[in-house]
Each structure stands twice: as structure tokens, then as C-alpha cells.
Amino acid sequence: MPTEKPIDFTSMPDSRGHFGPYGGLFVSETLMEPLDELRVAYEKYMQDETFLAELDADLANYVGRPSPVYHAERLSRENGGAQIYLKREDLNHTGAHKVNNTIGQALLAKRMGKQRIIAETGAGQHGVATATVAARLGLECVVYMGEVDIARQEANVYRMKLLGAKVESVSSGSKTLKDALNEAMRDWVTNVDNTFYIIGTVAGPHPYPAMVRDFQAIIGREAREQMQRQTGALPDALVACVGGGSNAIGLFYPFLNDETVKIYGVEAAGDGLDTGRHAAPLCAGTPGVLHGNRTYLMEDANGQIIETHSISAGLDYPGVGPEHAWLKDIGRANYVAATDDEALAAFHTLTRVEGIIPALESSHAIAYALKLAREMDQGQTILVNLSGRGDKDMHTVAALDGLKI
Amino acid sequence: MSRISQRFKQLEEKSRVALIPFVTAGDPGPEVTVPLMHAMVEAGADIIELGVPFSDPMADGPVIQRASERALEHGVSLHDVLAMVSQFRESDADTPVVLMGYLNPVEVMGYETFALAAQNAGVDGLLTVDLPPEEADDLLAAIKPKDIDPIFLLAPTSSDERMQRICDAASGFVYYVSVKGITGSSHMAIGEVAAKTAQIRKHTALPVGVGFGINSAEKAQAVAQVGDAVIVGSVLVKRMEELSDRPDEIAPAIAQILTAMRQAIDLV
User: Fold this and answer.
1) Is position A387 annotated as part of the catalytic site?
2) B222: contact with A, CB 8 A cutoff
3) pLDDT tens for residues A36-48?
4) Cis link prior to A254 (omega < 30° from 0)?
């Protein structure tokens, strides 16, 4: 790590989980000791050669890592401007980046002697990835999912059930991801002795934002090498979608100290940032405290969390990981947004031009990358995190075409 | 001396255990709350805990979640809750009022603005369930000079080290959460509560309140033998929900439950 730089962007969080003013540990007292126990275990095992070797072997042989970096030549040519490269997290086992983290946390759960796993899920990708590792390790698994999300992600609900997980429908509040997280926290506080809570994103109380980032940073570490091997240089820009922000931080983190690499996180603009119907706290929210950490939130003037909207269930969340909040404030990363319509258009474009069907979440990143590429030179490169595949979104997209599948 | 400390001193002189009811401000409608507060005092409440509605009440069970949702349907904000306390103070200068809720509404209002407004309204204590003492320095610096007691939770999982840290930060009283779980849980074990309250007393001379899962006069009586205050919430809020379409009946119904608890506690 170069020491002459004014800021080491990889130095966060501090010992109590703060990323500048963000992050921290805002939970009820009952969870303070369990979170400390988790922090101690996480710090210990991230230095433990046997644990890391087991993690690496699982990522290679079970997940299928490394995932390729693919030069989308035809897309780049037809779009004009910079060359677009895709980090193919969609090719991972279970179809998204989520499994990188669930593998890690499940191994940790096993080391800590916890027999029961719980998780929250929005699009269902994290739920499936959790149910998958729980099946493999023979752990009991309960996944909390909002009623609204259950309706729009039926296929993933069925996958979780096939994998032996119990899917608990959450009907409080807005009946989406944030409420699923509330309910999972309530379960955890009640069953804390035997239960490990696998949070799927880089939000929540310390140590989750740092721990999930560390498990996801394999994306950026691989991509950094792959880009240098394929192009002889680092990319000029990184683009990833941001809901809670785990795929984005996973890609960004190993590049944070590479000053020449511009970084763009793409939030869900839903119907448009000016309509209020969106899920873009970094672009249009304000700081507050929710789900165990201080970060940018979608909230009203009285501090109540407001309902978000996005075509993509995985981005439909009113908060965002605290590290992103910090990166925004210090200006190391830029946060932008893509609307439902822009994401859908990008979904169709990538599908037809490259034969790759992206998840609606990842389509937001593609949409912005296409726009950005046109403002750049042909000799420049953009690396996009293709965080998941679109199989789970078939019926959502088909419904827009008037089809029921 | 804060109004809360004075109240506990008076109770100690009379060898009386405090009864602290919790209701969510603005549930089922804003007009219910202030008359209900007076009725609770008349029925034997020593301190009132007023819930500040929040959209994401992570530490609460379904009963108090729904109370928050009902209040929020009427747009009840922290400003409105403070106005209710002001109105209550017009005819009750003695009964301490503790606001209980989550940090974000206070955070968004701003700590200093909140502290001043709360003092002016006559608020005596603040319990933000998602704010451990480690993150509380700025808020404490704002409310302590305004004589607002920070009330902190202690849990079955709290170690001696944490108990000490929490007791050092708290004033007024400390609040022992009698179950691992959310509000309205029903599996409180009185033996464990007795052991934990004794353990807490090694760390502080502050009064120890006990809450979460006290849903009957019998449990209230059992808790009164080991705690300095019996805190009841979900059992009241559940009754209010049943009567939400007959708001006139709420105050007498809640008074009836509290009277029974008061009698049971006073037998101790």
C-alpha cells in the first residue's frame, strides 16, 4: 500500500465500525454482546490460514471462481465510445455475487457453533444463496422476505423452499426488504443463542458492513488482475449498481487507492429522482440511523423511513452501506442513478447484443455504463460488475410485454 | 434533582414500587393520548412512558409495531409527541414522562433542537432503544444539561463490563429487559430476572425498572419483588387496539388494567 498518499481509502472502518461519521453500532442492548462475539470471531478467522484455505477452496470448487471478465466487444462497438468489460458474477453458482458472502458467513457460523441460520432477502438472490449454503452445511435456515417481494420473485421463493429453507412472509410496513430486515433482527434478538444472522449487504451494525465487504472484495481483487492481464492496464472507470451496495463495494474496494480509476455507483431512480418514487438515498436522501448504522436514507422531515420504488426488488431499499456514504462525502466515488425504463432498455440491449441476460439490478449498472461510455474515448475502458443473471426476472419483464409465464 | 429521581425518592420513602405504563403517542388517534395519560396517573401510574412512533420499530413485537403504524397513519411526529407532553403538563406538573423510541426521529430533528424542545415541553427522560452508550456521547451532551435523564436498557446478554458502562452513562433509572426478545414476548423467567436485577445493583445505586413480557397482575407482582419499577406496555397497547374503533372506552379500560396491577404490586 503506498504510504505517501494523503488518504488510505481502504483504512476504514475504525475499531468501532465507523466510516467517518457513518456506520457504527446502533442496536438494542440485547444484540451488543452477540455482535461483539461475531466481531471477535470474524477478526480471528480472517487471519486464520485454515479458515481462509477452506473459504478459497469453496469459492473455487463450489461457487466456480474466479468469474471471468468479458470484453463486450459488440456492445462497445454498437454503443460507441469506451470499451465495456463485464465482471461475470452472474456465472457464479446461484446466479449472483451474493454467494461469495454467504459462503464466508456460513463457514463462520459453523466455526461459532451456530446451528440455525437466518437471513433477509429482497430479490431473493441473497435468500437463495443463504439457503444454498445452509443446505450444504446441514444448517436450519429461515429466510425473511416481504410480501410484495414474494409476489414478484416467485421463482426464487420456490428455489429457497426446494433447498429446505423456510420462507417467512413479512407483512409489516412496506412489505419489502427493509421490513424483512426488521423481522430478521427480531428473530435474531429472540434466538440469539443458537442463531447466526447472515446479512446480505454491506449495511447493518458493525461488523457486518466491513465483513460483507471483505467477503465480496474477491470480485475486485480478481477483476484488477484480470483487467491488467487482458488490457495491460487498470480500467478507466468502474460501474456497479447500488442497493445496499455489496456488489459495488466488492468491486470498488481493491481499486480505492488507484487514483486514476473513476468509480460510479448506480442507484435505482425508479420512476425518476424528481418523482420521489425511487430508491436512491445517496443521490436524493439525507443522513440518518436505520438498521444498526448511520448512513444516507430515504426519510421524511420527521425521520420516518419512506417507501421506496424500483422495478428491481434487490435495489428497493431505503438505506445504503455506510462505506458508500463515506466514499460519496469524501468524493472518492460518484453516485448516479438509472430509472426503471433505462434499466429495462439496458436489459434488452445486453440480452440481444451479447446474449447475456442480466438481472434487473445489474441492468442499472449497464444502463449507466452505456451512457458513460459514449462520453469517453474508444481507447478507454469501463469495467461493469454484472452482479447477477436475469433468470429470476423473467416474469417481471414478460409481464411488461403483457405475457404471463 | 430530576423529576424522575424525585419520584423514585418519594416512592422509596413510601416503600412503594413504581408502576410505569407505556403507550404509543397518537395511538389509535392523536386525541386519545393526553386524556389517557391523566387517566393512567389516576389509576396509579408513577411515571409515564410515551412511545414515539417510528416506521421501523426493530425491537418491538407486532402489537407495538401496529400501534406505531396507527399513529403514523395520523402523521404523528416527534413534534406532535412533544406538543402532547406540553398539553399534559398544563394539568400535571409532577408525573415524570419518559419518551421511548428509536434514534432516527431525534437524529433528524437535531440533538440540540430536540433537547431544548423536550425540556420546554416537560419531558424528563429519553430512551432510544437503538442507541447504546458507545454511540451516545453527543446526545448525552445535549440532553443532560437540560435535566433530561438518559434511560438505557440492560439485557439478559449484558456482561458485567457492559452493565458498568451502561449504568455509568444512565441517570434516573435503568431499564432491565427481562427477556431475550422483542416487546410483548411472553416467556419471562422470574428467577432469572431476580438474579439479573441483583447483579445490576452491584453496578449502580439507580433504581432498576423491569419490562418486556409483563402481561398480568401476577407477573407484575412477581417483578415488584425484585425491581424498583414494573414497566408494562404490550398488554395495554393490545387492549387499545381492540378498542381502536371505540376510543371513548380506552381510558377506562386501561385504567382498569393498571388498577389491578397497582393493587397486586402494592401487596408486595
Assistant:
1) yes
2) no
3) 999 999 999 999 9
4) no
- How many domains, in total, are found in chain B? 1
The model's pLDDT over A113-171, given as tens digits with 9 standing for 90+, comes to 999 999 999 889 899 999 999 999 999 999 999 998 898 888 899 999 999 999 999 99
Q: Is A244 exposed, middle or buried (0-12, 13-18, 19+ CB in 10 A)?
A: buried
Cα angle value A210/A204/B158 (rounded, 5°): 100
Q: Are A190 and B180 an interchain contact pair (Cβ–Cβ within 8 Å)?
A: yes
A228 shares contact with chain B (CB less than 8 Å): no
Spacing of C-alpha A265 from chain mean position: 11
CATH number for the domain spanning B108: value is 3.20.20.70
Three-state DSSP at A292 gives strand
Coil, helix or strand for B75?
Answer: coil
Residue in B24, B55, B161, B164 to test binding to A, most A beta-carbons within 10 Å: B55
- Digit-coded pLDDT (tens) for B29-70: 999 999 999 999 999 999 999 999 999 999 999 999 999 999
CA distance A179 to A145: 8
Task: HSE, CB side, 13 Å, CA atoms: give it for residue B134.
Answer: 23
- Measured between CB atoms, does A176 come within 8 Å of chain B? no
- Distance from C-alpha of B56 to C-alpha of B54, rounded to nearest angstrom: 6
Can you give the pLDDT at residue A215? 98
State the helix-helix crossing angle for B250-266 and B33-42, rounded to 10 degrees: 30
Range of the domain at B142: 3-266
Confidence (pTM):
0.96
pLDDT tens, position by position, A7-34: 899 999 999 999 999 999 999 999 999 9
Number of C-alpha atoms within 13 angstroms, CB side, residue B179? 21
Question: In terms of C-beta density within 10 A (0-12 exposed, 13-18 middle, 19 or more buried), how is residue B102 classed?
Answer: buried
A 21-60 residues inside an 8 A Cβ radius of B = 24-34
DSSP state of A62: I
Phi, psi torsion values for A355, nearest 5 degrees: 70, 30
Which residues from A are below 8 Å from B159, CB to CB? 33
List of residues 6+ apart from A88 with CB closer than 8 A: A67, A68, A69, A70, A386
